[in-house]
């Protein structure tokens, strides 16, 4: 009897979904960012109903749960999960080894079945993200009730152009809650990006709990005030608000964020800045500085003379810290900073000069290189690789280092020519703390640190593989990343405002084929995705959606 009832219900559902079999869809139904490699529009729509099951097996548990939560929260329908149901009327997740790229996927939507196949779980996850963007933006808001949810038929074959697709966040200058960081990770996932570069230590604040050195956060996690406005110029001497400011993430919170990102196939790459940008660490442990202090957690922005002393004690201290960092972060890469290291203290330090002599180094640049090589050796011995800002090229690059090219593209080109892997983050296209509008409109915007600006169109025009490289050298370009320095972003709202929609443009730069990149076409899809930002409650630069206002003047 039960079986008969089941068959009757299933037939009813099928006849109901039959009405969708012949529907002709319009191009408007397919607004996916980043643009998939191949997308074929077909006839018909899949009806999501209470009879829909997800078919998958335990190897895809996380993806099944993600999809089930997504569809349940938007439709109010609880989907059953069944490894043995037939494809008819259902959504199937599967691994398919014939797909070439480890992040590649296929998505097939027909009126009576959806199949998402990935080479690995990552591909299946990205297939789910594409499926999500085939659903109306209203699904993103759990308060919306959608009576009938249908998905337009399509055949997609997709894989990314670059293996590294990142977003960075500076939590040193301003500190942001775990909830905000997770909201950031959600954005990274929606855009099929796969790396979150978490800039955890700065002159203005040390943000990661290290058990062996509790003062790093007790002392280094807080500053006694913050510079007000665009201070530090001749006509605007520094003034401070004198309000104690700070915060840090406990190791439990870090584990939670790493797991949250991992479930979305995002690797969290921690950055521990050395040997410069270290005032906060030195305020906590002055014995590891050249002058022995006293130091204070910086209250203003900029580049400081304070650096770690190149002593055995300092290396021991840094190795202890990095050991705890490695316990928390499973990423292959650990970012060790290396940028903006002023050499004054080393020039004046008898001990640093002794090291230069002892090690046969030419100058302080080579001392920096020695410093980085020591740290690299330690991390390599523990199975990890370093990323450093492009200054690590000066004085000789460490043997296995990856370069993050930020002062333009030259560092990236030089590194690739030396057969080092590279992540491109040139300020011109990838610094999302720059204004989004030209000088005449900047007065209407929240203050940023300079008059430089980068429009969405400019981000979209970026080509991460420099033309100067041969095809062989070009293989060393792993991808690109958007950087978000937060000196002038005291609130989370401002972070979102600066990131969106520029990261949406970057996501297509790093994912889609060159052939598939078309500004006009992207812009149409951008106008759709903002409805998703709205439904999800993200703040964004609305004027940047207006093509005319976004023009680079
Ligand atoms: C940097 O912007 N100092 C890497």
Query: Uncertain segments of ≥5 residues (pLDDT<50)?
Result: 1-10
Using the coordinates above, name the CATH class of the largest domain: Alpha Beta
Q: Major β-sheet, in short?
A: 8 strands, parallel, barrel
SS class? alpha/beta
Shape descriptor reads globular
CATH topology of the largest domain: TIM Barrel
Range of helix content: 25-40%
The fraction of residues in strands falls at 15-25%
For the secondary structure, the number of strands is 19
What's the helix count?
18
Name the strands of the widest sheet in spatial order.
Answer: 8-9-14-15-16-17-18-19
Count of distinct structural domains: 2
* Bound ligand species: acetamide
CATH architecture of the largest domain: Alpha-Beta Barrel
Mean pLDDT: 94
CATH superfamily of the largest domain: Glycosidases
Rg over C-alpha atoms, rounded to the nearest angstrom: 25 Å
User: Distance between the terminal alpha carbons, to the nearest Å?
Assistant: 73 Å
In terms of quaternary structure, the protein is single chain
Key traits:
2 domains, 18 helices, alpha/beta, eight-stranded parallel barrel, Chitobiase, domain 2, seven-stranded mixed β-sheet, TIM Barrel, binds acetamide, 553 residues, 19 strands
Overview of the molecule:
This protein is an alpha/beta fold. The chain is built from 18 helices and 19 strands. It has two domains: 15-158, Chitobiase/beta-hexosaminidase domain 2-like (Chitobiase, domain 2, 2-Layer Sandwich), CATH 3.30.379.10; 164-545, Glycosidases (TIM Barrel), CATH 3.20.20. The protein has helices spanning 2-18, 61-75, 121-134, 178-190, 215-218, 251-262, 279-284, 312-328, 344-348, 350-358, 364-381, 410-417, 427-430, 456-460, 471-474, 492-499, 502-511, 519-536; strands spanning 38-48, 53-55, 80-81, 90-95, 105-110, 113-118, 149-158, 164-170, 195-199, 201-202, 205-206, 222-223, 245-246, 267-274, 333-337, 385-389, 402-405, 422-424, 477-482. The strands form four sheets. Strands 8-9-14-15-16-17-18-19 form an eight-stranded parallel barrel, surrounded by five helices. Helix 2 (61-75) packs parallel to helix 3, helix 4 (178-190) runs parallel beside helix 6 (251-262) and helix 8 (312-328) packs across helix 11. The radius of gyration is 25 Å and the shape is globular. Bound molecules: acetamide.
């Amino acid at each position: 009897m039960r079986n008969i009832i089941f068959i009757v219900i299933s037939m009813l559902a099928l006849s109901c979904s039959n009405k969708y079999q012949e529907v002709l869809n319009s191009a408007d139904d397919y607004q996916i960012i980043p643009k998939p490699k191949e997308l074929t529009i077909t006839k018909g729509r899949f009806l999501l109903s209470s009879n829909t099951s997800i078919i998958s097996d335990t190897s895809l548990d996380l993806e099944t749960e993600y999809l089930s939560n997504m569809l349940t929260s938007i439709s109010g329908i609880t989907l059953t999960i069944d490894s043995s149901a037939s494809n008819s009327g259902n959504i199937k997740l599967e691994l398919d080894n014939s797909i070439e790229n480890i992040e590649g996927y296929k998505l097939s939507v027909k009126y009576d079945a959806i199949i998402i196949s990935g080479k690995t779980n990552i591909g299946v996850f990205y297939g789910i993200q594409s499926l999500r963007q085939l659903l109306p933006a209203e699904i993103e808001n759990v308060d919306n009730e959608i009576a009938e949810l249908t998905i337009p038929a399509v055949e997609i074959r997709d894989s990314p152009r670059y293996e590294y697709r990142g977003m960075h966040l500076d939590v040193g200058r301003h500190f942001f809650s775990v909830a905000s960081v997770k909201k950031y990770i959600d954005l990274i996932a929606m855009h099929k990006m796969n790396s979150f570069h978490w800039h955890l230590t700065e002159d203005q604040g040390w943000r990661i709990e290290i058990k062996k050195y509790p003062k790093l956060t007790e002392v280094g996690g807080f500053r006694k005030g913050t510079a007000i406005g665009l201070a530090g110029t001749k006509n605007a001497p520094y003034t401070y608000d004198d309000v104690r400011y700070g915060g840090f993430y406990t190791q439990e919170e870090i584990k939670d964020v790493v797991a949250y990102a991992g479930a979305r196939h995002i690797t969290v790459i921690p950055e521990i800045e050395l040997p410069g940008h270290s005032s906060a660490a030195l305020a906590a442990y002055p014995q590891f500085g050249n002058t022995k202090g006293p130091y204070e957690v910086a209250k203003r922005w900029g580049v400081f003379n304070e650096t770690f002393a190149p002593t055995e004690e300092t290396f021991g201290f840094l190795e202890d810290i990095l050991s705890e960092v490695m316990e928390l972060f499973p990423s292959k890469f650990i970012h060790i900073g290396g940028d903006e290291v002023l050499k004054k203290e080393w020039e004046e330090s008898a001990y640093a000069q002794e090291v230069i002599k002892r090690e046969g180094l030419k100058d302080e640049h080579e001392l920096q290189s020695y410093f980085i090589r020591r740290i690299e050796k330690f991390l390599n011995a523990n199975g990890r690789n370093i990323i450093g800002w492009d200054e690590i090229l000066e004085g000789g690059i460490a043997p296995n280092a990856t370069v993050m090219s930020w002062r333009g593209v030259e560092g990236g080109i030089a590194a690739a020519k030396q057969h080092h892997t590279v992540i491109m983050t040139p300020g011109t296209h990838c610094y999302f703390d720059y204004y989004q509008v030209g000088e005449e409109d900047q007065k209407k915007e929240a203050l940023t640190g300079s008059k430089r600006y980068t429009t969405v169109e400019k981000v979209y025009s970026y080509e991460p593989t420099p033309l100067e490289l041969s095809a062989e050298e070009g293989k060393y370009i792993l991808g690109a990343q958007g950087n978000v320095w937060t000196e002038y972003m005291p609130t989370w709202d401002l972070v979102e405002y600066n990131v969106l929609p520029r990261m949406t443009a970057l996501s297509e730069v790093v994912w889609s084929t060159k052939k598939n990149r078309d500004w006009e076409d992207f812009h149409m899809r951008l106008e759709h995705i903002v409805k998703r930002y709205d439904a999800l409650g993200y703040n964004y630069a609305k004027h940047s959606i207006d093509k005319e206002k976004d023009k680079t003047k």
